[in-house]
Amino acid sequence: MGKGEATRERILEIAEAAVLAKGFGATSIDEVIAEAGLTKSGFFYHFKDKNALAREMLRRYVKTNDQLFDDVFARGRQLSDDPLQAFLISLKLLAEVMADLPNGHPGCLIASICYQERLFDREVRDPTAQSVRDWNARFRHILGGIAAVHPPREPVDLDDLADMVSCIVDGAIIMSKTLNDPGRLERQILIFRSCVKLIFSAPSPS
Predict the structure, then answer these.
(1) Domains in the chain, ordered, with CATH?
(2) What does pLDDT average to in each consecutive run of 10 residues of the chain (206 residues)?
(3) Distance between CA atoms of 86 and 40, rounded to whole angstroms?
(4) Which are the contacts of 114, defined by CB distance < 8 A and separation ≥ 6?
(5) pLDDT score recorded for residue 174
(6) How many C-beta neighbours within 10 Å does residue 68 have?
(7) Which of 125, 94, 54, 56 has its CA nearest to residue 193?
(8) How high is the pLDDT of residue 123?
(9) Positive or negative CA dihedral for 19, 23, 25, 31?
(10) Which H, E and C letters describe the chain, residue by residue?
(11) Which residues contact 17 (CB under 8 A, 6 or more apart)?
C-alpha cells in the first residue's frame, strides 16, 4: 500500500470510528483532519466533501462485511453438503465471530446513514438501500436452497425470513450497546439459528 492509499485508509478508519460512536451529524471534517494529522488540503485531496467521504466509508464497510459473510458461509458449505446443516453451521460460526469482539460490535454504518439520511445525497442513500437489498437477497438465496430440500414445517415467507437476519443483527447491536451487554448479538444470532432449525427440520417421531 502506497503512502497516499495508507493516508486514505487512515482517514476512513478515523471517520468510521467517530461516526459509529456519535453519528454523522456530530462528526466534523475538522476533527477527522486533526486526528489524522493532516492539513485541510491533504484531506480534500482524497475526499472533496463529507458526502464523498460517506460514499467511500459505505463502500469500504459493505466490502468488509461481504467478505466476512463470504468466508463464514463458505466455511459452512465446506463442512456440510446439506444446505440446512451448512447454514446452521455458518450461523454458529458467525455467532462465534461476534463473540470474539472484545467490546462488542462497534455499530452499523448503514444504520447510522439511515438515521440521518437527510444529510446525504442520492449517491449515498441509493447504495445504502442497495446494500440492504443485496444482503437480504444473499440470505433469500440460501433459504430457497434449504426449502427445496427441507420444506418448511409451517407456512413461512422466505423473503421475510431472509430479512430477519438484518433485523436481528442490527437490532442486537443497538440493544447490546444500549444495555452494555456485548453478548446480546451472539445470543440473538443463536436464537435465530434455533428458529431456522425448528422451521426446516423434520418433526421428531412421536
Answers:
(1) 1-48 (1.10.10.60), 50-200 (1.10.357.10)
(2) 82 90 86 90 89 90 91 96 97 92 75 78 84 94 97 94 93 88 92 96 64
(3) 49
(4) 128
(5) 87
(6) 12
(7) 94
(8) 82
(9) negative
(10) CCHHHHHHHHHHHHHHHHHHHHCCCCCCHHHHHHHHCCCHHHHHHHCCCHHHHHHHHHHHHHHHHHHHHHHHHHHHHHHCCCHHHHHHHHHHHHHHHHHCCCCCCCCCHHHHHHHCHHHCCHHHHHHHHHHHHHHHHHHHHHHHHHHHHCCCCCCCCHHHHHHHHHHHHHHHHHHHHHCCCCHHHHHHHHHHHHHHHHHHCCCCCC
(11) 106
What pTM does this model have?
A: 0.86
Query: Would you state the cell numbers that stand for residue 52, as one nine-digit string?
Result: 464523498
pLDDT for 168: 92
Question: What's residue 203's pLDDT?
Answer: 65
Enter the C-alpha cell of residue 139.
440470505
Contact 154, 199 (CB under 8 A): yes
**Residue 126 contacts residue 172 (beta carbons within 8 Å):** no
* CA 184 centroid distance within chain: 16
